[in-house]
Hints:
Radius of gyration: 21 Å
CATH topology of the largest domain: Quinone Oxidoreductase, Chain A, domain 1
Strand content: 15-25%
CATH architecture of the largest domain: Alpha-Beta Complex
Largest sheet: 7 strands, mixed
Structural class: alpha/beta
Organism: Periconia macrospinosa
Number of helices: 9
CATH superfamily of the largest domain: Medium-chain alcohol dehydrogenases, catalytic domain
Pfam families: ADH_N
InterPro entries: ADH-like_N (IPR013154), ER (IPR020843), GroES-like_sf (IPR011032), NAD(P)-bd_dom_sf (IPR036291), Trans-enoyl_RdTase-like (IPR047122)
Order of helices and strands: EEEHEEEEHHEHEHEHEHEEHEHE
Keywords: Oxidoreductase
Number of domains: 2
Domain Enoyl reductase (ER): 17-360
Amino acid sequence: xxxxxxxxxxxxxxxxxxxxxxxxxxxxxxxxxxxxxxxxxxxxxxxxxxxxxxxxxxxxxxxxxxxxxxxxxxxxxxxxxxxxxxxxxxxxxxxxxxxxxxxxxxxxxxxxxxxxxxxxxxxxxxxxxxxxxxxxxxxxxxxxxxxxxxxxxxxxxxxxxxxxxxxxxxxxxxxxxxxxxxxxxxxxxxxxxxxxxxxxxxxxxxxxxxxxxxxxxxxxxxxxxxxxxxxxxxxxxxxxxxxxxxxxxxxxxxxxxxxxxxxxxxxxxxxxxxxxxxxxxxxxxxxxxxxxxxxxxxxxxxxxxxxxxxxxxxxxxxxxxxxxxxxxxxxxxxxxxxxxxxxxxxxxxxxxxxxxxxxxxxxx
Length: 364
């Protein structure tokens, strides 16, 4: 029998030890929302590569188990905190669960989860749960990489009247080029859409489907294959020119980040926002002088970003106005917190049999 918000315990799939399968708990506590929070009855959650790494490697939480997984969450509001005025019980919403909330109460592989009201939106008319569940994590990473003044490039957010960006550079984006490396990734595809909305004059993308990306607003889509020195680097240089200030890398690890760094301006101090911040980047193949460029590490958890609240306003606006297109998704068969089924999903992410996010229906 499913729990109700009036009971004190619920079912949850938990990481209880590192590199071990998730296990089902039937006595996991139902959390209580703080004044600015909501209690959601979870219907759908998305599992991404970081979820697999939490289970198998103890990413972030090796010393604070047990924890559920799942940060893309859709559900219905069961209870609102005392300071919440914009939502009411029964509202159909989606949210980005805060992985780092004390007690791991904001993850989706449980019957009830906490959501921060400021980082939650109603499911827009005309969208399915599956469509909106595919948005938060990847959209947040892309939005942060472009707009956050500390964890991204710091360009003005859409609709801003500022004519100078957070780094003192003129924000005449129609005269600027942006390079997006990893156009085949979900983050890369959202990056292209947001760069187009922002008004960049030239949007150069390395990798991905040319027709799709140009439909999102890319002006140039480049083949990522070939020898770097003789093929790929000249190909990028021909597209971006010699004065590139803005670049986002959605796919390269530290040892190959030079692909993006080397495309930056020879004259001005360019910047790369990287979405895989796993240690210092290798410099052996970087042709730029140290100090002539900046690399910033992007983490997309909106609760920790200066642009986080504005991002959730824009998610609602862009979806309702169809300015952003949701991406494809894979819905796992079945309903409910089935440990075997969900562990198979995570195994597939680990073994490369699943290329991206998988949606798990927790309840109808």
